[in-house]
Amino acid sequence: MGLLTLAVMLLVPLIAVALFLRAWPILAAKPLGELLLSTTWHPLKGEFGFFPFIMGTLWVTAVAMLIAVPPSLLSAIYLAEYAPVRLRAVAKPLIDLLAGIPSVVYGVWGVLTVVPFVERHVAPSLNRRLGVLGLFRSDNPTGYGVLAGGLVLAVMLFPIIIAVAEEVIRAVPQGLREASLALGATRWQTIRNVVLRRAWPGVMAAMVLGLSRAFGETMAVLMVVGNVARVPRSIFDAAYPLTALIANNYGEMMSIPLYDAALLGGALILLLIVMAFSTASRLVLVRFVRSG
Amino acid sequence: MKRRKAKVFSRKRLEEGFFKVLMIGSAAAVLGSLVLILGTVVWRGLPALNLAMVTQTPKGGYYLGKEGGILNAIVGSLYLAGGATALALIASLPIAIYLQFYAARSRFAELARLALDVLWGVPSIVYGAFGFIIMLWLGMRASLLGGIIALALLELPILVRGMDEAIAMVPSALKEASYALGATRLETAVKVVVRQTAPGLLTAVLLAFGRGIGDAAAVLFTAGYTDHLPDSLSSPAASLPLAVFFQLGTPFPAVQERAYASALVLTFIVLGLSLISRRLGGRLTKHVIR
Known about the structure:
The complex is a heterodimer of chains A (292) and B (290).
Chain A: H1 2-9, H2 11-29, H3 32-37, E1 41-42, E2 47-48, H4 51-82, H5 85-100, H6 103-130, H7 146-170, H8 174-182, H9 187-216, H10 219-224, H11 242-249, H12 259-291
Antiparallel strand pairs in A: 1-2
Helix pairs in contact in A: 2-12, 4-7, 4-9, 5-7, 6-7, 7-9, 8-9, 9-12, 11-12
Chain B: H1 2-45, H2 51-55, H3 71-102, H4 107-121, H5 124-138, H6 144-168, H7 172-180, H8 185-196, H9 198-214, H10 217-222, H11 240-248, H12 253-283
Helix pairs in contact in B: 1-12, 3-6, 3-9, 3-11, 4-6, 5-6, 6-9, 7-8, 9-12, 11-12
């Protein structure tokens, strides 16, 4: 049993090593700087610049986090501090349900609801009012793009961030709250000045955990993000995240030289980023729950 | 002096009220998005759903809008997720027992839990890529077995951590009573604690199954896709998430409608499992001493 446990513990490094070995041909053939910073992606000509895909991932993730974090934290605070017991008993399973919906179903919802919404309402109105700022300029006639991907991804992050943040907030000792309330602070003041200050590392960890999920999400994002291999300049531009690149091209990757090494190298980049984020947040959470 | 105090007091109240409205609004938005997603899938999926969809495999020209159904994907998904859950269960029960009974609170156990949590966060497409590398190495082609292995890896951390936490809830007095009667650690684990935690273990199993059946990225590389029912472990297998994805990708509205219907079938299965696990959680407590 111990050996089995050890084997499972070594699985993450094993995956990393396997991906590294398969990606080695391209790492040996091209300088790392070119792979990471070049914007030309022509597998047939042997040019593999990951920059547009890395930027695609970063854009979609950033938009998703900006949309997801405020409501998630407010909901988590509400559920932990204010909600009546019966409401909590109803709301928590429903939020867990949200976490259980398959990502393809999120994608279908995105295609049916979010993309038309962005196309018909958000893009025209923001383009008219704030189009002078490049960030909101829309020259993409479809709704498929960074914002649609970010919105769908944000909804997928809600349950993850809420569940962890709520647990962390509830782990703050009751005595601290009582002391603050006894000094005449309102409940919100208590939350802001005492509870959140104490829970902050854990709340940060909840957000980073959400971030690492956002990096790795594949299907739902792939379905709504447009998949154009160009660095996005506005939230309405199409993007092409790393995960989508891997999923879309697995079929032909064995028939073009170095292509498979490049795609599996992409998976390696993804794994390393996600691993760093999730290890950091788990370390904080473990310590936090233990001390709290 | 009195007036000033009243003013400060009211500002406090105002801030309280403002944030409370914001919080309730956020919680409503989160729950509203659940309603919106389920509503959209039911609204658009139900009209396209019929008996043929769930009882037939695709006939010739299905992807152009002709007759057939997605039975291949439903059966494929059940095989994939079922096989993966069985495989992951065989590996994870010993690990959970080891973590709770042999390693207990040692540093090794802490490290193992950390590794499992990190494993939980590994994107499913990376499991797919890893599964693909293993298959290349073994000289396998896209097949049911390949998909089962990739999904089992994906489900493993969910199962172990779920069981680990369920077993941790068992009162230590129960373990001590069993030890006092001369039972070994293994006997205590298997005969007393596993029976005690049956509801928790089942919840973990259903959760893992749900995650496995809903995952597309890991099976994309490893299980392939076919219009036939899988007849052996080495034949490729279709899956529901990929059925949704591929049908949505066709340019024909009639086929896209079927993608919505397929998404509805998948949602039914996943939500149904989650409801069953909640119900069973109460039923299976026959043996549980409180």
